[in-house]
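Our preliminary data section would be incomplete without showing what the modeling component actually yields. Below, a chain of 184 amino acids is followed by its predicted structure, encoded as tokens that our downstream tools consume directly.
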Amino acid sequence: IVQEAGKRFGWKLRELCVSRTLFESGVRISEAVGLTALDWAQGGFRNVLQSRNKGSFGLRTKTIMISNPTTKLYRRYFDDAMNGRAAVDPQRLRVSNLTTLYRGNPQSLENVSLFLTEQGAPLTAKLFRDQYWKPALMASGIDADPHQARHWFVTNALRNIDRTAKDETSRSRCRQELIRYIDR
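Predicted structure:
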């Protein structure tokens, strides 16, 4: 519903990537928009990313996963010279450039934000929330904050645990793993 509201409102690849990341990984909005090229590179530019966490003092303490279709969307967003990140990045970096930079000097990617504003600055949680999320959802008659994606993620994860756990020990172990993941 959120994705469709965003599309009707005119969300571009960036907004779709951020919102899908929120729902698929359960991260906080600041963690999603704060992702860097280094966070993505450490997972081989695939569907596993490292993330800074609230209270981690800038250290990458969280491993997040996104779906393969979202990974493809990240690549499209990053490389699109007309409507994506490459269109606003002063360095015009593409995924192929990131791979080369990562091999030569991984730390050079630490300050390369995945999500940029139309002016080429790092996207902030406040800007995403105020200029993209809220207006799109309000236009569709939906009253939901981005943080609710985190709640949806946990609820969905708990339902999956309850549906697939073989026994109470397994269910309890999986719930504890979920708690550790969300608390990081």
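The mean pLDDT is 93. DSSP finds nine helices and two strands in the chain. Preliminary results of this kind motivate Aim 1 of the renewal.
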